[in-house]
Specification:
2 domains; mainly alpha
Length: 76
């Protein structure tokens, strides 16, 4: 089973970016057991709040590559 999964992952990684992104979204959505109707609006409010703080100079942004590298380092 693990060998088969490794082969599937290898095949999937060769797909175009947009196809992989769509597939990733579908797989992640399949993990949800229920739908939180309020979550979408809550996230929108949080995003607007964070953006407002950023525009006001109260928060600083960081390059996504830096954030991902830091997260990967923590997982090791």
């Amino acid at each position: 089973m693990i060998r088969e999964a490794d082969e599937i992952v290898e095949d999937l990684l060769s797909l175009p970016l947009k196809v992989r992104a769509s597939l990733a979204h579908t797989l992640i959505a399949s993990l949800d057991e229920g739908i939180d109707e309020d979550a979408e609006e809550s996230w929108k409010k949080e995003i607007r709040r964070r953006y407002r703080l950023f525009k006001q100079g109260k928060r600083k942004g960081r390059p996504v590559a830096q954030v991902i590298a830091e997260l990967r380092a923590k997982l090791k």
